[in-house]
Write a structure and sequence with these properties.
membrane, Leucine-rich repeat, LRR (right-handed beta-alpha superhelix), 19 strands, ten-stranded mixed sheet, mainly beta
Amino acid sequence: MGGQYCSGQALKTTIPTPTLLKNEGQDGMLPMYMAGQALSSWDAADNGTNKPSANFCRWDGIACNDRRNPGRVTAIRLRGSDLGGTISPHLGNLTHLQDLDLSQNNLLGEIPVSLGRCTELRTMNLSVNQLSGSLFPDPLGHLSKLKVFNVRHNNLTGVIPMTLSNLTALTNLSVESNYLQGQIPSWLCNLTSLAAIDLALSGLDGQIPGELGKLTKVAFLMIQSNQLEGPVPPSIFNTSFMEHLDLSFNQLSGSLPHDIGFQLPNLKGVFGSAVGCEKAAVK
C-alpha cells in the first residue's frame, strides 16, 4: 500500500476473507478473519470469478468517497460482521481513512498503534469486542480530526491518558465497561466540542472535577457505577444543553439541586439516588 494507494490485494491482506485463511499460518499478515458471510463479495468463490474482486471500493463494508483521490479507501464499516482475531496493523496504511467501524464483533488483542497514521479519521468505533491493553495508545494522539472515539464494552485497562487531550475536535467519548483506574481527568474540559461523555462502569475513583462544568456543549454525561466520591460540583449544572445526567451507583455525597429542571432546561433524565446523592425532581 505504501501509505498512499491501497490496491485490492493489499486491502484483502489487511482484512482477509475465508479464501485467504489457508495461508494464515504461513504469512502472519492475516490477523483478522471472518466467521460469517458479511464479506462474501470480497471472496473469489462468492463473486462468480476465479479472482478476488479488483474493484475493492465495491466490496461490502468498504467506501471510497474522496473525489480528489479516487480509489482511496475512506470508510470501513463492518459492524456486527462476525469478525474475529486481531485488528491488523496494516490498517495504518489507509491514510485517507475517515470512518472505521469494527464494532459488535469478536476482535481480540490491542488497538494497533499504527492507526495513529490515519490522520484523516473522524470516527473510530471499536465497541463491543474483546480488545485488551491500553485504552488509548499514545500515537492515536495524532488524530486531531477525530470526532468519535467509542471503545465501550471491551477489556481495556490503564488510566485515561493525557494524549487524548490532543483530540480537540472530539464530540463523543465512550469508554464504558472497561477496566480502567485513576480519576476523571480535569483536562477533559479542554475538549470543548464534547457533546457526549460515557465513562460508566469503568472503575474510576476520586471526585468529579469541577472543570467539567466548562464543557458547555455536553448533552450526555454518564459516569454511573464507578467509585466516585465527594460532592457533585455545582458547575455541572451550568451546562444548559444537558439532556441526560447519570451519577448513580457511586459514593457521592450531598443532594442534587431541587431546581435542577430550571438550571438544566433541556434535561430529560437524571439519576443520582442509588448510593450517594439524593435525586431531585426534574420539573
